[in-house]
Automatic annotation (TrEMBL):
Keywords recorded for this protein, A-Z: Membrane, Transmembrane, Transmembrane helix
Keyword Transport included in the entry's annotation: no
Family membership: Belongs to the TerC family.
Keyword Transmembrane helix applies: yes
Gene source species: Spirosoma profusum
Major subcellular location class: membrane
Transmembrane region(s): 6-33, 45-66, 72-96, 125-146, 152-172, 184-204
Membrane topology listed for this record: Multi-pass membrane protein
Taxonomic lineage from the root: Bacteria, Pseudomonadati, Bacteroidota, Cytophagia, Cytophagales
Any one Gene Ontology cellular component term annotated for this protein: membrane
InterPro entries: Integral_membrane_TerC (IPR005496)
Name by which UniProt lists this protein: TerC family protein
Amino acid sequence: MHIINQLIPLLTLIVLETILGIDNIIFISILAGKLPAGQQARFRYWGLGLAMLMRLGLLTLIAWIMQLNTTLFTVAAIDMNGKGLILLAGGLFLIYKSTAEIYHNAEVGNSANTPDTRKASFRDLLLQVLLLDLVFSLDSIITAVGMIDQLWVMYTAVVVSVGIMLVAAKPISEFITRHPSFKILALCFLLIIGMSLVAEGVHVEIPKGYIYFAMAFSFLVDFIQMKTVPKSGNG
């Protein structure tokens, strides 16, 4: 009975951490597409590996993380704290990156057969991932601390969830590359996540369930359209 009482919160946290990691996978997959094919797998491993190290490192600093809720200053009756500033900066960065990518795809008409000609180095892209890893990891760890009080459960959940993301990263990346419309959909998803991070940074809570439901519904509509349009075209 004692094992079951420990197993249930562990499995729950693994599922939650994996769901929260979807944002990370999509962002890394889109950036990986800017690199030569031979470097993409290594980039995904590095990006998700850094995400795991970031989460494990933050778990050792739980006391410091909890202090991030201390008010630093007040702007327009909004109490700003360390966590809020990190989420705000990360959200704005994600909005900028998503908007820039959407603009590039719309203007250049990027497709699966049209390579991205913008210069992008492995190191520069990895630094971008590192910045977003910090924001996503902070949100993930604070969620974990709010659910579980056993440190080993948090460590195990982080390692297992990142392992799942490593397995899922390649097929997701290949799918996005093959289907440009889903890349735009993924970028819009990241744009929404960026807006939710900004909102959370100023203490406006947007339930993530709404965001993931909207994304799942949009994905389903796009998937149905992808399957039905060629058939109607041939008819």
